[in-house]
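Q: Here's a chain of 143 amino acids. Please give me its 3D structure as C-alpha cells.
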Amino acid sequence: MAVQVVYWSGGGNTQAMAEAVAEGIKEAGKEAEVVEVSSASMDELQNATAFAMGCPSMGVEVLEEGEMEPFVAEVEQFVSGKTLALFGSYGWGDGQWMRDWVERMETAGATVLNGEGVICQETPDEDAVAECKSLGSALAAHA
C-alpha cells in the first residue's frame, strides 16, 4: 500500500511540499500517493501505520477550516499508535499553527516525526524541498 501524503493547498506552496515529501518516500523505496484532502480515504489512513498531512497556516495561525480542520478532527479519533509527518507553509507569524497541530496529534497518541512539522515561509526554497524529502524518507521507514 502506498504511503498517503494528504494535503490542502490554497496557492500551491503546500502542494509543492507534499510532492517533495512523496519524492522522499519514493527515494526511500516505498510507494507514495499525493492526495488532496477532499479525495482522501479514511479507510486507507485507518489501515496505515504511517502517513503525512500538510496544511498551510490560515487566519490567526490555524488549519484551513472548511476541509482540513474537519478532516484532522476525524483523523484524531484513530491516529493513536501511528507515525505522522506534518508539513505546511505560512505567510506570517512564527509557526504556532504547526506547534498546535503537533501537540494535538501527540495528545491523540500519534508519534510526530522529529517532534515537529516541517514549515517554510511562502514558496518552498531548495532547503525546504530538501527538508520535505528528508521527512518523506524518514516516514517511509515507518510505513
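Q: Can you summarize the key feature?
A: Residues 7 and 117 are 13 Å apart (CA to CA).
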